[in-house]
Amino acid sequence: MIRYAHILNDSIVDGPGMRLVVFLQGCKWNCEGCHNPHLFPLDEGIEIDEVQLAKIILKKINSMHSGITFSGGDPILQKEALLKVIKYIRSRRPDINIWVYTGFLFEDINNLPLLKEIDVLVDGQFKLNEKDISLKFKGSANQRVIDIKKSLQNNKVTLL
Ligand code: SF4
User: Is 71 helix (H, G, I), strand (E, B) or coil?
Assistant: First the structure.
């Protein structure tokens, strides 16, 4: 089972092109200035079977979308369940571009099987004193937009 809060059909700020964004429930970082404090409790939101959520996502995806972004909350807090969702999506749409946002650092989670299934990880907690609204796809300068396939190949962080 996995918990999510809501799904946005048409974001243009959570990755390239128009994206379907799935906001997963639960976060432990408590970043100052966070826009989504209502997503903090891990026991709230909508609890759903992983395959059911994957099917809902696949139904919503259309030719206007450039990909799917999992945000939150921190999706990595539900990493096993999220892996099931992504694997199901990949089994139907192997081509689909998938981004995940997290407060964890790549170096601390680079062994997770989940990473092998995604294209981009935006890592690091939001830092209010490094906030910069001109940044693309991230809120503060410390966060990194990481090309996961290249980073796993090179065994070091490779930015997109
Ligand atoms: S990681 Fe994201 S959702 Fe969690 S507290 Fe920080 S800004 Fe908010």
Answer: strand
Q: Which two tokens stand for residue 6?
A: 């809501």
Indicate the pairing of strand 120-123 with strand 46-48: unpaired
Homologous superfamily of domain range 2-154: Aldolase class I (3.20.20.70)
Token readout for 82 is: 């999220």
Question: Which residues does 66 contact at the CB level (< 8 Å), separation at least 6?
Answer: 15, 16, 17, 18, 19, 97
Q: Is the CB of 103 under 6 A from ligand 1?
A: yes
Across residues 122-139, what is the average pLDDT?
Answer: 97
pTM exceeds 0.90, yes or no: yes
Q: Is residue 14 within 8 Å of residue 24, measured between CB atoms?
A: no
Q: Where are the domains of the chain?
A: 2-154
73 Cβ inside 6 Å of ligand 1: yes
Query: What is the spatial distance between Cα 117 and Cα 131, in angstroms, rounded to a whole number?
Result: 29
